[in-house]
Design brief:
Layout lengths: L2 H17 L4 H8 L3 E5 L34 H13 L4 E7 L21 H10 L3 E4 L19 H25 L3 E5 L4 E2 L6 H15 L9 E6 L10 E2 L3 H11 L2 E5 L9 H8 L6 E5 L15 H12 L6 E5 L8 H20 L3 H9 L3 H12 L3 H11 L7 H12 L5
Parallel strand pairs: 1-2, 1-10, 2-3, 3-4, 4-6, 6-8, 8-9, 9-10
Antiparallel strand pairs: 5-7
Helix pairs in contact: 1-13, 2-10, 3-10, 5-6, 8-9, 9-10, 11-12
């Protein structure tokens, strides 16, 4: 798109929003503060690099598709991530799983990992002047094959995963210390039952015990922030998940940790956006994992749909941007992986831009005065306003491709890099 056309369209859009009492310059300044944590596992379909030719295996995780160009080394992965970030406006950071360490061709089991195995990632982030988030990897491992990790009744298995998670928190704290920005460490486990269990209570007691042991060591929040992630069901845990939303919500409130809301981890009729203002009454911060579930938690690429838009609107309307950590979580192997990143990240950024362009004070005043027709009419009018022109201008300001131009960039990268792997 031509610079002149983008600027002209923006000036027209700016005037239209001004009529509603919205200052687009202030909106773009606010959008600049929003940071999206990019999930590393979209580059290689959640394979990781614990051993050569590592492939995804078990624990309720499944990437579908076999599109060419998958990252097979950490060098390829970093090159892909650099390309993705070059096509995104605003700020990003990296969300890394423990299985993506640099182990020098040697097998290092997960209860033995150390910061040195991730120093290359820390150095990469330093060069990019960004932060890293971190996750224990409690799947794709022989000791996860029985379907239980931190809630296992086998004490040897339970202690293994407790030690792994303890080490991940220590590594995350060191990442945050070196990078000067807190690392968010997220705990998700696949523990659950394919068929109806009898001893749900016993399993949840064990999980609580494990979490208490893991969180016994406290790290300064300027280095590490902890979060726990629930799920309604998963592959192999269709009848019961030990770490349910009710379990983790109670644990997070009691222990003042964050809770992770993955909008693919709930029943399709639940509105994750509606949960945000409720939970923020009782915890300091939230973590979001944004995705697109198609009939189930299918980890499709996030798009600018009603669900993502409501999540963004609720955060902005609650003035809670500083209390919500925003990350992506999907792994689609059926299309260009760089394209999947960029489409999903831009969709989330666009949702927050759309939410920021609402005349919030005016809408609240209408609501409090019972002027519900005017509130509804204004919301409908906003749907026809040229927010896309504001988005293109934001891209132009950030010196990244606007409009459809990023598609050509990705196709060029596919031809020159991905197709040769």
């Amino acid at each position: 798109m031509k610079k002149e056309a983008i600027e002209k369209a923006y000036q027209l859009a700016k005037a239209q929003y001004a009529e509603l009492g919205v200052d687009t310059r202030a909106v773009l300044a606010e959008l600049d503060k929003i940071v999206i944590s990019l999930h590393c596992w979209q580059t290689d379909d959640v394979g990781g690099f614990e051993k050569e030719g590592a492939e995804l295996g078990g624990g309720g995780i499944q990437a579908t598709g076999n599109f060419p160009g998958k990252a097979r080394t950490i060098e390829q992965m970093r090159k892909d991530l650099d390309k993705v970030m070059s096509l995104l406006p605003g700020k990003q950071r990296l969300n890394l799983h423990a299985s993506y360490g640099e182990f020098g061709g040697k097998f290092v089991d997960r209860d033995k990992i150390e910061t040195k195995h991730y120093q290359g990632w820390i150095n990469w982030a330093k060069r990019r002047k960004t932060g890293i988030d971190f996750n224990c990897t409690c799947f794709s491992h022989p000791l996860a094959d029985e379907g239980f990790t931190l809630s296992s009744k086998n004490e040897k298995i339970r202690k293994f995963w407790v030690e792994h998670t303890k080490r991940c928190r220590a590594i995350g704290a060191e990442m945050g210390k070196q990078l000067g920005t807190p690392t968010v460490h997220n705990i998700w486990i696949p523990d659950g039952s394919k068929d109806t269990p009898i001893d749900r209570n016993g399993l949840r007691k064990i999980l609580r015990k494990s979490l208490d042991e893991i969180f016994a060591v406290r790290y300064p929040k300027k280095y590490l922030k902890d979060s726990v992630e629930s799920k309604l069901f998963g592959i192999g845990s269709e009848s019961m998940v030990v770490g349910s939303h009710d379990f983790y919500l109670g644990y997070a409130v009691k222990n003042n940790t964050m809770i992770t809301l993955d909008n693919g981890h709930f029943h399709p009729t639940e509105q994750v956006g509606d949960k945000i203002s409720a939970i923020l009454q009782f915890v300091d911060e939230l973590l979001l994992h944004l995705t697109r579930g198609v009939r189930w938690d299918s980890d499709h690429v996030a798009t600018l749909n009603d669900e993502i838009l409501l999540i963004a609107q609720e955060i902005v309307r609650a003035k809670a941007l500083s209390r919500v950590n925003i990350g992506l979580d999907y792994f689609d192997a059926s299309l260009n992986r760089i394209g999947a990143y960029v489409v999903g990240a831009r969709a989330v950024q666009q949702a927050f831009l759309y939410a920021l362009l609402e005349p919030n004070k005016t809408l609240v005043k209408m609501e409090e005065q019972g002027r519900t027709f005017e509130r509804l009419a204004t919301l409908e009018i906003l749907k026809t306003k040229p927010f896309g022109a504001v988005w293109d201008y934001y891209c132009l300001k950030n010196k990244v491709p606007a409009g459809q131009d990023y598609i050509d960039e990705i196709m060029k990268y596919e031809e020159e890099v991905l197709s040769k792997r």
